[in-house]
Amino acid sequence: MLTRTNKLLLSLRDSPPKGDNRLGRAYTALLFVFSIAVITVCSKSSPLYPLNNWDDANCFFTVGKSVVNGQVMYRDIFEQKGPLLYFLYAVAYVISGNSFIGAYLIEIICCFFFLFYSAKIITLFCDIKAVLLLPLVSISVFAAPAFEQGGSAEELCLPMITYAFYVGLKSIVHKTPVTPREWIIVGITSGAVLWIKFSLLGFYIGCGAFMVFFYIAQKWHNELLNFFVFLMFGEFIISLPVLLYFIINDAVSDLFEVYFYCNMFIYPVREVENKLLGLILNIHEGTKSCLYSFGVGCGFIIAGAVYAFIRSKKLFIFVISSLVSSYLLIYAGGRRYTYYSLILAVFLSLGIVMLYKLLQLIPLKKLYQNKTERKALACICSAGTVIVSVSAVYALSPNTYMMTYSRTELPQYKFGEVISKTEDATLLNYKFLDGGFYTVGEVVPNCRFFCGLNIPYALDEQDKYIRSGKVDYVISCGTRYYFENYEYVCCESFESHRDSYCTYYLYKKKDSAPIKVV
């Protein structure tokens, strides 16, 4: 028993020789093919789906479209996420117009770089063959409820934070300081996370604090200066164009009011007198949500933490400090949507390392002594990995039900036919988040509060729009309203495996030309 234990510990502490741990063309191609396949299957932005009907993704897309059409975010159109997220969706709109194909392409790129740097992390500790486990284990990410429906801020930030995780691990494992070029890239990517969703910056807090102490312990005093200078330079590179946009459009105050003030002081939900108790309750509820939405992934994260503990004290402290600070910043505010936990997939790669080290104890090499046989086996395993992984995510993803629907069955397209009969139609989503009606109807909002939001005064403003007849059409969800200056046109219902039963109601301004609904 002692011999087996020693063998296990030696296996866990063993690493491949120090080098640049390049993946090579074959493994890079494997990850790229898998990225295309898994996003095509799992994301509702994919052409296999009639529509990405997730309200968050449609909010992002509508704001991006509005920016392209001359509106200033936050000042002219209100949504609480970061400006860079809307710029990305503006690019998506430029690519494909009123469809999510542009967002789909951006998701593929983000998925590839997330997998690429996860693979680079794996090869810090294992030989290249361990990368074959990455697509298989990624099922726990892309088929999890935490993936949501495609296009979340967490999904787009995954590759950026994974890169920083890789840089930190490489410095610890190889006992070499991070290069100025790497610090600049970490600065750019962390700045991007700041301007996409600042609550995801928790990783950088824990990571940065550890790296400062690590550099001091290693007596890398000059390199510590490089750390701050080049990191801040990278932050400046990404932040300058964002700030210039708001300075040029005289909307700096709107940026800070909506993105920072509203998210920090209005958006959090738990109100108790004892702030510490409130924080504990928030974390408790967040933990339950995390286990539901990302349970299998959490298992791999715990396995990775165990591996780090066995491997070295420094490695363990780095992982735990980054993980805990990430977790606290995600759930401290009290909200716990299923997609919040997706960002923790950054830590999944170390769990794969643990799994591979354990699999290495199985003497499979004895079955294939011939080099040609081993190469053939590697090719079969590579192809099999993609096929099995994609098949598994198709079977397990909570989104694939939507592939069975046609556009003609969706309320968005049915209402779109009606709205299209009015030239340059305007629209308001009343009391509910953007349901995709702006997207399908090819409508650019003319109201700042274009949909129902988690902001108390948004509803008052929407009522003003209706009283003044500011829009041609109003859509409500779940409740039929009787407006003085709008007439009821029709209703459409939609029920599915994932979406709750929803009935949407369409109203048209009374002084507009009548519409005959067939």
Polypeptide structure, described:
With 518 residues, the chain is mainly alpha-helical. It has two domains: 14-43 and 100-396, no CATH class; 407-509, no CATH class. The protein is 59% helix and 5% strand. It has 20 helices and four strands. It has helices spanning 2-13, 24-42, 55-68, 83-96, 101-125, 133-137, 139-142, 153-174, 180-194, 202-217, 221-248, 252-266, 275-293, 295-311, 313-331, 348-359, 371-396, 411-419, 437-440, 458-467, and strands at residues 427-430, 473-477, 486-494, 502-509. A four-stranded mixed beta sheet has the order 1-2-4-3, sandwiched between helices. α2 (24-42) crosses α5 (101-125), α5 crosses α16 (348-359) and α14 packs across α16. The longest helix has 28 residues, at 221-248. The radius of gyration is 25 Å and the shape is globular. The relative contact order is 0.12. The mean pLDDT is 89.
Topology:
Blueprint: H1 2-13, H2 24-42, H3 55-68, H4 83-96, H5 101-125, H6 133-137, H7 139-142, H8 153-174, H9 180-194, H10 202-217, H11 221-248, H12 252-266, H13 275-293, H14 295-311, H15 313-331, H16 348-359, H17 371-396, H18 411-419, E1 427-430, H19 437-440, H20 458-467, E2 473-477, E3 486-494, E4 502-509
Parallel strand pairs: 1-2
Antiparallel strand pairs: 2-4, 3-4
